Structure formats: C-alpha cells, structure tokens
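Contributing new complexes? Match this layout with flavin-adenine dinucleotide.
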Amino acid sequence: MSSTRFDIIVVGAGIAGLTSALALQRDGASVAVLDRHRAGTEASWAGGGILCPLYAWRYPQPVLALAAEGMRRYPDLLASLDSGIDPERWVTGMEILDPIGEGESVDSISATLTSAGIAHQWRRQEIGHGEALWLPEVANVRNPYLLDALIDTVRARGIGLREQCAANGLLLSEGRVTGVATSEGDLHADRVVITAGAWSEALIPGLAAGSLFPVRGQMLRLEPRPQNGLDRILMENGVYLIPRRDGSVVVGSTVEYAGFDKTVDAEAQARLHAHACRLWPQLDGAEITHRWAGLRPGSSDELPLLGEHPSIAGLWVNTGGFRNGLAMAPATADLLADRMADRPTAVDPTPYRLDRLIQTAR
Ligand SMILES: Cc1cc2nc3c(=O)[nH]c(=O)nc-3n(C[C@H](O)[C@H](O)[C@H](O)COP(=O)(O)OP(=O)(O)OC[C@H]3O[C@@H](n4cnc5c(N)ncnc54)[C@H](O)[C@@H]3O)c2cc1C
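Output block (do not edit by hand):
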C-alpha cells in the first residue's frame, strides 16, 4: 500500500506544481504531487511556450523580475531533467512590430528592458513601417514536451505523482495544515503547497473573492510546412506566431474573462488565422491541425501569489502565473523552495506575499 504521509504535498501538477515538487525534493523532502486529472494537461499544456513576457515592459516590475529570472534559469532546468524527451527549447528571438504604445517611447521601453537584463535592439521593419523591437535571446519551448519531461523526472526521482486524485479540502489543526482531504482519502503532510492554477482560490482559505480567476486563451496550430520560412517569434497587435522545430506554427491568443469555460469559438479562431496569414503570407493556405483553449491563472493585481499563508502555518502557495507562468516557472519554484528553507532569495519575495489578498486573519 502506498504511503499517506509526506513532508510536503503539492496540489496541482502543472508547470508550477511539477517544478515546485522537484525543487522541494532537491532539499531532501519526501514529496507527493496530486492532480485531479492527468498531470500537465491544463494551462501549462495549452500555453504557447514563449519564454519571455509579451510587451514585457507593460507588466508590473515584480512580474518582469520573476520572468527575467526564469528565462535565465531555463537552460539549467532543462539540463537537470531525467528524461529522453526533448522539450525543444529554441532560441529564435522575438520581433515585435508594434512596440510603442500610448505614453511609451524607445527610451522608456529600452530602460525597462535593460533594467530587467533583457537584450534588445531597435531595427527598421522588414514588414510594415516604423521601428520594430528585436529581442534576440527569446526562446520558446514545446511546452507539452516539457511537461512530459518534467513528469518523467518527477517519477525518476521517486516523487509520488497521484493523477486522477482531487484535493477536496485541507486538513487543519490548531492553526496548522496537517494534510489534504482527497478523492482517495486523507493524505497527511507537515506542509502543503497549492499550485492548482486557475482553480486555486477554493483551496486558499480567506482569500478575498475574485483574487484568483481563469482567463481563457484560444490558440491554433498550423500544419508543419518547413518551407514557410518563419524563423522567429513574430508579434503584432497582441497576436503572435511561434515557429516550432518541425515547421508547424502556433498562433495565439485571445484574452477572455469567460469563467471556467474552455470553448473554442469559430470567430476568434478565424481572426487569429487571418492575422497570422497577414503577418506572414507564406502561411496562407496552411491547414489548421489543432484548435484549443486553456485557462490562465489570473490574479486581481496581476502579480503571482507565492508564499506562506499568513494565518495557516505550513500552507504555501505558488500560483497566479497568468500569461507568464511557463517563463517564470524555474524562478518561482526556486523562490518557493528558498522561502520554505528560509534561505536568501534571488528575487525580492515581498510583492508576491499572500497577505495582500487575504483580509481575514483567522
Ligand atoms: C493560451 C495560453 C497561452 C499561453 N502562453 C504562454 C506563453 O507563451 N508563455 C508563458 O510563460 N505562459 C503562457 N501562458 C500562461 C501559462 O500557461 C500559465 O501561467 C501556466 O501554465 C500556469 O501553470 P500552473 O501550473 O499554475 O497551472 P495549470 O497548468 O493550469 O495547472 C494546475 C493544475 O492543478 C490541477 N488542479 C486544479 N484543481 C485541483 C484540485 N482540486 N485537486 C488536484 N489538482 C487540481 C489541474 O488539473 C491542473 O493540472 C499561456 C496560457 C494560455 C492559456
């Protein structure tokens, strides 16, 4: 019979949960990860895999700090995986055709990117008019492959991965968490980490209503046609094209506040497709092979939630990655592990603390 007691239980096996579990086990803890579905099949699977925020300078500084740190840590994360699956990280660079929005200038954008350590150049556009912004070091990963490689690694390291196992609530005693009530019975642990993405709010007592919510994003994939010539991530007016190594192209994305609904609608898909073909005419006529939607974990102040619950000892949270959860993952997992081990952190943890959104200290 498998054990029901662990040092740490991680609830949710997306990118946040899998990377957190690996970082915590590295510190010597016995760790279990639960997912109510198959691991790695929600937002982390649905995302585009761009390892840099889109229009990065428009995010609050604490988001940019974590994303930039995540970008720097990706090569080490990938090198540490125990799996035969290649996540296909590809440094293609990203070209943004409409970088300068209202109230922004070349100088203001450059200053923000420079302070985050994100290399960039301004250059005359090959397509369209005016100055394009070129980010030469931006990579993308094939995130479904990355998740499979993380799952392999979790298993190879002896972390108990329990799929089809839903957390229904927390076990609490005298102001401490003592485990998780699950669809397979009670599991006990000294500490619990909530990494349940857009579904996390229900598992974090005292969180102000509306602090965490799903934000739908629709995507599509165009058939592999290596001759399409797309050799970089291309972005305009919120629509991006991501080249994959097999010659397919992923196009995204919508940003929709539609509750827990992953419906794909024909009108939004047609708009994405038309925009993609206008941006890169060689895609015209390429067949759409997949259409899908995922639910990003959004937060009311756009910042991740990362830290210990202010009034429930042992309850930790790592969620709220919103549009950048893949890019930030190596940094958020390490920050969580450093905080739980009481070590100094690479990024100031203060802005992500939970007490900003938890109003009732019980
Ligand atoms: C269309 C789209 C495009 C995106 N593009 C990018 C991009 O290019 N770059 C980037 O950095 N980010 C991108 N993102 C954002 C990124 O995908 C997310 O921020 C990130 O995947 C969130 O990871 P997560 O682990 O927090 O959530 P998820 O991947 O959603 O994982 C949460 C897990 O928790 C499980 N769970 C929920 N409730 C319970 C429960 N009660 N018990 C047990 N398990 C539970 C779920 O089944 C799920 O597996 C995109 C997102 C979308 C939707």
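Reviewers usually confirm one structural detail per submission. For this one: The two ends are 36 Å apart (CA to CA).
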